[in-house]
């Protein structure tokens, strides 16, 4: 039997990378093996991955030498950065540079870079519809990733740029789930007006990435955008109402109100939603549902995701998991 091609997965103990490792391991006859990169090979999650059959290897995306070793002998690499761990686009760009260099050093035949738009191409810094943040960004956690695309392409790497979407899992772990308003009614709050938000089950991102790797090199040099559904706030609220058995409303607020909510990153997310709202046709168009489903036939709809996860959504009067 031919030797399996190794896919080295950054963020393997997290949402995106975890989905990819799971997809590789669930397809033993697919011709690929999973190399899970983690900073701590002794963590419970890392040990679990090893038990499931992944090769677990130590690497830190801030340390180019560790990445060079971790990518050695691999056929492909999945590259992702972790903005919310440090809130720095510059750090994301530096980390992308490190990953691209390590991929080049090892002659990887296929790289997926998990990216987002550099929104400044649509909203230049001179456009005052939204404030400029950190001196030179409109949506810092998007712009750094988009700017970092060049770190991969300029080295001539065989890269697929993967445009991801809003995780529905944010309703569980990012404080975006239904909250009771002053009127005592549950609502989800997003400054999207009546526009559609492309969303996805976080675990489906890695499964789509696996679909890209399985296509061979067909999608290198291409940008691929994915989502599980494009839904308005009203449509998501209706789905919540059905799944939870109690009314959930959609609370549309202006982006400036969202920016003023005061939690860390509220300004970044307020600008992000405004970008998605104001450039909605482009943004949804860049995240094709049929493409995502062809890469990952088990792609979840929002209703399916809610059915599997509604008990994990923290809401007043009920703890997550209760
Ligand atoms: N939330 C959303 O809606 C959304 C949508 C699209 C894109 N994104 C983007 O997704 C990215 C995060 O991906 P994710 O959700 O898969 O992350 P995640 O679930 O938070 O996973 C992070 C994993 O990465 C590893 N990690 C963290 N720092 C590392 C480092 N310096 N070197 C190596 N590994 C490191 C950690 O593993 P160890 O501790 O085992 O090392 C951790 O398990 C963010 O940049 C965010 O902007 C988010």
Architecture blueprint of SSEs:
Elements: E1 5-9, H1 15-25, E2 32-38, H2 44-52, E3 55-58, H3 64-71, E4 76-79, H4 89-105, E5 110-115, H5 140-153, E6 159-163, E7 166-167, H6 170-173, E8 179-180, E9 186-189, E10 197-200, H7 202-214, E11 223-225, E12 229-231, H8 233-244, E13 248-251, H9 255-259, H10 266-278, H11 280-285, H12 289-295, H13 302-309
Parallel strand pairs: 1-2, 1-4, 2-3, 4-5, 5-6, 6-11, 7-10, 9-13
Antiparallel strand pairs: 8-9, 10-12
Helix pairs in contact: 1-7, 3-4, 4-5, 7-12, 8-13
Bound molecules: NADP nicotinamide-adenine-dinucleotide phosphate.
Residues 11, 13-17, 38-40, 43, 46, 60-62, 80-85, 141, 164, 166-167, 170 line the site of NADP nicotinamide-adenine-dinucleotide phosphate.
Describe the overall structure:
With 322 residues, the protein is an alpha/beta fold. It has 13 helices and 13 strands. The chain has helices at 15-25, 44-52, 64-71, 89-105, 140-153, 170-173, 202-214, 233-244, 255-259, 266-278, 280-285, 289-295, 302-309, and strands at 5-9, 32-38, 55-58, 76-79, 110-115, 159-163, 166-167, 179-180, 186-189, 197-200, 223-225, 229-231, 248-251. Strand 5, helix 5 (140-153) and strand 6 form a beta-alpha-beta unit. Helix 7 crosses helix 12 (289-295). The longest helix has 17 residues, at 89-105. The radius of gyration is 20 Å and the shape is globular. The termini are far apart. The model has no long low-confidence stretch (mean pLDDT 96). Residues 11, 13-17, 38-40, 43, 46, 60-62, 80-85, 141, 164, 166-167, 170 line the site of NADP nicotinamide-adenine-dinucleotide phosphate.
């Amino acid at each position: 039997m031919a030797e399996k091609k190794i896919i080295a997965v950054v963020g393997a103990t997290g949402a995106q990378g975890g989905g990819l490792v799971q997809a590789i391991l669930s397809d033993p006859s697919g011709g690929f093996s999973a190399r899970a990169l983690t900073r701590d090979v002794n963590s419970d999650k890392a040990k679990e991955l090893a038990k499931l059959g992944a090769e677990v290897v130590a690497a830190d995306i801030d340390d180019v030498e560790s990445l060079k070793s971790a990518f050695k002998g691999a056929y492909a690499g999945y590259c992702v950065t972790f903005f919310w761990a440090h809130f720095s686009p510059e750090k994301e760009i530096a980390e992308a540079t490190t990953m691209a260099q390590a991929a080049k050093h090892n002659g990887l035949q296929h790289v997926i870079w998990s990216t987002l738009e550099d929104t400044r191409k649509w909203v230049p810094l001179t456009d005052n519809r939204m404030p400029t943040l950190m001196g030179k960004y409109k949506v810092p956690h998007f712009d750094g990733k988009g700017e970092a695309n060049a770190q991969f392409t300029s080295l001539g790497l065989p890269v697929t740029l993967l445009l991801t979407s809003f995780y529905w899992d944010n309703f569980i772990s990012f404080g975006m789930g239904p909250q009771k308003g002053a009127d005592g009614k549950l609502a989800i709050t997003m400054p999207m007006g009546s526009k559609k938000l492309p969303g996805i089950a976080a675990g489906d991102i890695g499964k789509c990435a696996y679909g890209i790797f399985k296509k061979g090199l067909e999608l290198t040099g291409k940008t691929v955008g994915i989502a599980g559904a494009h839904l308005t706030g009203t449509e998501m609220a209706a789905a919540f109402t059905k799944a939870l058995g109690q009314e959930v409303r959609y609370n549309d607020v202006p982006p400036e109100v969202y920016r003023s909510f005061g939690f860390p990153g509220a300004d970044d997310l307020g600008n992000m939603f405004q970008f998605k709202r104001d450039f909605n046709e482009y943004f949804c168009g860049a995240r094709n549902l049929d493409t995502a489903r062809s890469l990952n036939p088990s792609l979840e709809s929002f209703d399916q995701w809610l059915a599997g996860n509604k008990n994990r959504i923290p809401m007043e009067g009920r703890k997550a998991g209760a």
